[in-house]
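hey all, quick one before standup. I had two proteins in the batch that finished overnight and I want to keep them in one place so we stop losing track of which output belongs to which input. First protein below, input sequence then structure tokens straight from the run.
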Amino acid sequence: MALLHRSSHRTPQPPADPGHRVLAVHRLGAVAVALVIATFGVLGLAGGLDFFSTEGERVLGLSSNGLLSTISLVTAAVLLAAAVRGPRIASTVMIVVGVLFLVSALANLAVLRTSLNVLAFEFANVVFSIVAGLVLLLLGAYGRLSGNLPPDSPYARAEDDAVDEPLDERPATPAEAAAELAMRDAEVAVVQRTATGDQRRRVEAMARVRTRVERRQVWMSFDGPPA
């Protein structure tokens, strides 16, 4: 009975934090893509491929040469280093590398089957570059690039950065309304050089503040506390 009583009062596990899930996707996504690219590069170099050959050999269903294998290893190393540094850096690096993959796909498609095809690309390589670039962009932008981020996202702007709503600075009492009328009369009198000494002092004091509420408070401060 004691065991049953204990088991029925287990503490419920808190739900997974969406913010941590976003960071985990960035870090693990960079590692996963890096491992795939690194495998392709290692197999290419292990096969002793010609470094600058435009007629590549098959590696994992794709065409490759020594230069492409080396670039693949460098790219994988960059992604792994970014994942080690942190998920935010991994997110940024994945977005940048993803764009470079798409640019590479278009550039190599233009030089396909020509002497400028220094990476020994074939059409399958172009398709792979497009897919890999889109995957990197999706993983890097996950939970980060949006016009309406949830508040639990680690990339959501702090509340202090939000634009504050304008305050209502209109007079709230008859005394404040009368003070504003007197303020305007004093400012007009100062401009027309017909102001009294008290009006000049009040206008000079109001010039040191900016908001309408502060100016009204300065004016009313000359009247002293109510009797």
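OK second protein, same deal, sequence then tokens:
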Amino acid sequence: MSSAPHLPSWSHTSQEEPGRVPAVHRIGAVVVAAVIAAFGVLGLLDGLDYFSTDGERIAGLSSNGLLSTISLLTAAVLVVAALRSSRVASTTMLVIGVLFLVSALANLAVLETEVNFLAFSVANVIFSIIAGLVLLTLGAYGRVSGNLPADSPYRSEGADAAEDTDTSQQLPETPAERAAERAMRDAELAVIEHRATPDQERRVAAMAQVRTRGDRRDVWMSFDRAPLR
């Protein structure tokens, strides 16, 4: 029995609904990983000195064996994160994006010195800044915004937080409201498990049109007040 309707098999363990936001996170991580991995593989195949501070040109950038190895490890981390879940991929891209920017600034300070252990050049610094910004943009997509896309898995978290901050009119106060909330939970579970009655399906569909806890409860109870036809 699946945890949500129409889940693709590859995301069953992560319990995510399909959508544009999860796809951007996962595919974006893999695409960036492919670019970084290609750079690393070319460097290792070229037999670069491991700790050379001068480096050699690889795809327009300067590299040595150490930088090539780090590139491959970074690409592997991104791929593993993408395979785990879009949430993990998003967080990983945000972290690595920041590291790319920090690396660009740190290596800019040691260019043409004996401590330029990654054999950075100005081109490498520019690439690191661009790669860092791309990773931050992809990682933050559908996650850091005042108007999240409808398919964002982070949208419901924001709605829940907003509900928790306004408890004066959200919490059930009467026995009828508490009973309604129990019935609401049972109906939503029944819909997920594909065993809901037509009445439960209509009520859950109607509740989906509103966002706050109190409004959802009002919608549910409106069906009880409506005259039978």
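Flagging for whoever picks this up: Residues 53 and 107 are 11 Å apart (CA to CA). The longest strand covers residues 56-58.
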